[in-house]
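Course exercise 7: structure representation. Students receive a sequence record and must write out the corresponding structure in token form. The form below is the worked example handed out in class, using Fimbrial protein (489 residues). Read each field label carefully; the graders check that inputs and outputs are placed in the correct fields and that the protein name is recorded exactly as given.

STUDENT ID: A-19
EXERCISE PROTEIN: Fimbrial protein
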Amino acid sequence: MSKALNPFTRRLTAGIGIAAIAAATMFGSMLPASAADTTPGPGNIDNAISKSLTIHKFAQPATVGTAPDGTELPSSATSGLDALNGVKFKVEKVNNIDLSTNEGWAQTVGLTPGAVAAADLTFVAEAATVNGVVTFPNLAKAVYLVTETDPGANNIAFAAKPFLVTLPLPNKSDSSWIYDVHVYPKNSITELSKTVDDSTGTGLGTDVKWSIAAKVPAKSEGNALESFAISDTLDSRLSYKSATVTLDPASSALVLDTDYTIDTTTTPGTVLINFTPAGLAKLVPGATVNVSLVTTVVSLGGVSGVIENKAVSFINDSSFTSNTVKTVWGNVIIHKVAANDESKSLTGAEFQVYTSEADAKAGTNPVVVSGTSTFTSNASGIVQIDGLRATVNGTDTVVDYWLVETKAPAGYTVAGDASKSNPKKFFVAQGKVATTIDITVANPQTPPFMLPLTGGPGTVAFMIVGLGLLSIAGGVALRKRSTRSVSQI
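STUDENT ANSWER:
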């Protein structure tokens, strides 16, 4: 027998039912829909949908952007960013978390990459970016640890930190699920370049300047500039002279021994510039640290005069090597011989070398090599000039020189093709490699006095003059005799 409910009882019963439904809905929404059974509802994970992870790799811009949500960004959001090719990523599955249960999803809350044990990981795949993108398709529903393993050819100062991702990924905006997840971990890039200026160098003992430019990386998530140093290992034919360090733009002046130190003794032959904490604070992201390193060329040390140099920068735990530049030098050998017989060597000839024809003719600004500007032929007739700059800043453009013989050996005159009025032009480089160049300078003997000859036209002339004198003497005698005869009469 049924019992009718009064209106108040009916309203109370309905209210309790609505509240129960609301409570069930609220608590149910606090757990991921993937914890439901295999028959998905509108908000549940659809296990039949394939899942993928796509990594987009760009250089970190000066301004840190907003964090992406797992969906693919429109092209306008990444326009102007530099895509990085060849950056390699490794994807590993976290085995001890089951995303088919609420307990598994609960384990992901607050989980960090460092808390995942290596024993709980299974290797899935490893691949490098092409045009800044790499995709890992057909992945299972799971938690994955993604690690950047190789920067490729990119000067990555701050590598992207390892990160965790679930497939699928909850969509914060509408409580749906993202099956094709797109992530945008960025790298802070540095640049390191080197140039050479050997324009002030002519002979051994003169200077060559090397310029180093190192870019300060932009800030990136989870990274900070903890150390910054520049190292330059000099060729044994170079000796350190000085170094200056500046910042461009010059937002702050860098002070030696306050902002940075220069160490040339810890490792002989190596110049190490290391920034202090005070100096690190002045290194604005995107600025360039410029180092002007001056060295002296002290020897050539062999046949080749090619002296190469490169620099290395150290940023946190990473190191970067600059391009290689060079300065090219060579030797000159002058053979001093007699003009009429080049097998005869001449000692005591003196030479000077000039870098312009005008200086050669004027006798001004001679080239100095190892402290001397005058080079003398030895007992074998050899003048050895060790160490003249051969090309311009290590390029294929040769350096021209003019040779002047300033003093000839005793008994000889200055060679006409190496005189002050007509200096001899030469260059050291042959092809693209400096070698020893040989120059032959022949001297004519000083002209002798004209001496009488025996026989021939010279003798006849003397006989004619002698007969003439005898004729004159005979005529005078006859005249005196005639005068005496007249007087006697």
